[in-house]
Specification:
Rossmann fold; alpha/beta; Helicase, Ruva Protein, domain 3; two-stranded parallel ribbon; single chain; 379 residues
Length: 379
C-alpha cells in the first residue's frame, strides 16, 4: 500500500499504526515513504501530534525547495536538494554522511526548515565535545541532588528540542552507554533525567551526522548495530567539493561577497591566475577550506583585486614532495604546529576518538585539548 501511494499520490502523508512494531517493519515502512510509525497501544495525545504534523505537511505552507541556501547547480547538488525535499516530509531518522567541511549541519538545518517542525527548536549537539561523564546529564538533564554539584534541576538538550529536531553531530563519538540510552529514546520516545524515577515522553526528530564510516565501526564492535539501523533509516550523502568543481566559481563569488561585507570593503576582482589556481585544487578540506583560502586572500590582497600570490593552497595529505623539496613548512612555528597536530591525531586515534582519554594521555586538560583541536583545524 505504501509503495502504491508513493507512486500514485506522493503528496499524501501516510502514518503506519501497528501492534507489530519490530525494527525491520519500522525501517521498511519509513524507507517506503511513511512519515511516521506508531506502535500500539496508541496514546490519544500522540495521535493528536501525529495528525497535527500530517496537517502541516498537507496545508501547502511548507517549503518545497529545501536547498535554497545550498549553493551550486551541479548534478550532485541537484540530487541533494531533491533528497532534502523528500526526507523533510518524513519523521524518520536521517543519517547525514560526508567528509569534514562539506556542510552536514547546514543540510540538517535545511531538513528541519523544510518540514512540519520548522517552527520548533533545532538543537545541535556536538557529541565529541561533551565529556563522557557529563554526556547523560547534558542530553537528558538531571534532578537536584542526583550527584555532587547538581544544585538545581536541569533541562536536557533532548527536552529542549521538544516538538522539534535533535541533531547529533559526530554521533560516532557517543560512548557505548549513551548509545543504549539513545536507542531507547528513538524506540520508546521517552527520556529519563539523571536522578529521576520516571521516564518522560518526548517528541523529537533525530538527525545525525559523522564523517566516519559507521558500518566499519559496527563491524569493529565500536558502535551498536541496532542503533546503527535505527538512526540510518535514511542515509543522505553530502558530496565533497572535488566532485562538484563546477560549483567553485559560484561559491567563490558568494563567499567573497560575504567576507567583504563583514570586513566593510568592496568585493575584489579575482585575476585569471587566481581563478585557475582555485579550480586546479582538489580541496581536501572542502567548502570550509575554500572559505579559509578566500578569507586569507582578502586579508592579504591589495585593494580591488585578488592575485595568485594572495592565494595559499595547502597540499593534500600524502601528496609528498613538491619540486624535489620536502613539503614540510619552512618556518619554526609551522614545524611546531605540525608536530603538535601529529601528536594530537595519534592520541585521538589511540583513544578511539575519546577526547577525555586523549587529553589524559597527552597530559593536558580536556579544555586545552579542545582549544588546540579548534586552533589547528583538526576534524
Amino acid at each position: 500500500m505504501l509503495e502504491w501511494i508513493q507512486a500514485n499520490a506522493p503528496e499524501l502523508p501516510v502514518a503506519v499504526i501497528t501492534a507489530h512494531g519490530h525494527v525491520e517493519a519500522v525501517v521498511r515502512a519509513l524507507k517506503l515513504g511513511a512519515f511516521d510509525f506508531v506502535s500500539k497501544p496508541l496514546d490519544i495525545s500522540d495521535l493528536r501530534k501525529l495528525v497535527n504534523q500530517a496537517l502541516k505537511l498537507s496545508d501547502g505552507r511548507r517549503a518545497t525547495d529545501g536547498g535554497r541556501r545550498l549553493l551550486g547547480d551541479s548534478e550532485p547538488m541537484q540530487k541533494l536538494r531533491a533528497m532534502i525535499g523528500r526526507v523533510a516530509r518524513s519523521q524518520a531518522p536521517v543519517h547525514i554522511t560526508g567528509e569534514s567541511g562539506t556542510g552536514k549541519e547546514l543540510v540538517a538545518r535545511l531538513i528541519n526548515e523544510s518540514g512540519p517542525r520548522k517552527d520548533a527548536p533545532f538543537v545541535p549537539v556536538s557529541c565529541g565535545a561533551i565529556p563522557s561523564e557529563l554526556m547523560e546529564s547534558e542530553l537528558f538533564g538531571h534532578r537536584r541532588g542526583s550527584f555532587t554539584g547538581a544544585v538545581a534541576d536541569k533541562l536536557g538538550l533532548v527536552q529542549a528540542a521538544e516538538g522539534g529536531t535533535l541533531f547529533l553531530d559526530e554521533v560516532a563519538d557517543l560512548p557505548f552507554a549513551m548509545q543504549v540510552k539513545l536507542l531507547r529514546l528513538i524506540q520508546e520516545k521517552t527520556a529519563r533525567p539523571v536522578g529521576d524515577q520516571r521516564e518522560q515522553p518526548v517528541d523529537v526528530r533525530i538527525l545525525s551526522a559523522t564523517h566516519r564510516d559507521l558500518g566499519e565501526l559496527v563491524a569493529a564492535g565500536r558502535f551498536r548495530e541496532d542503533l546503527y539501523y535505527r538512526i540510518n533509516v535514511i542515509e543522505l550523502r553530502v558530496p565533497p567539493l572535488r566532485e562538484r568543481m563546477s560549483d567553485v566559481p559560484e561559491l567563490v563569488d558568494v563567499i567573497t561577497g560575504r567576507f567583504a561585507a563583514r570586513m566593510g570593503i568592496t568585493p575584489p576582482v579575482l585575476s585569471g591566475e587566481a581563478v585557475e589556481m582555485q579550480l586546479a585544487h582538489d580541496y581536501p578540506g572542502n567548502v570550509r577550506e575554500l572559505e579559509n583560502v578566500i578569507e586569507r586572500a582578502l586579508t592579504l590582497c591589495e585593494i580591488g583585486a585578488i592575485r595568485a600570490g594572495d592565494i595559499e593552497l595547502r597540499e593534500s595529505p600524502g601528496q609528498g614532495e613538491v619540486s624535489g623539496q620536502s613539503a614540510l613548512p619552512n618556518t619554526m612555528p609551522d614545524r611546531l604546529e605540525d608536530i603538535e597536530r601529529t601528536s594530537i591525531v595519534r592520541a585521538l586515534e589511540e583513544a578511539r576518538y575519546n577526547k577525555t582519554a586523549a587529553a589524559r594521555a597527552l597530559g593536558i586538560s580536556f579544555r586545552a585539548l579542545r582549544y588546540r583541536i579548534k586552533k589547528l583545524g583538526i576534524e
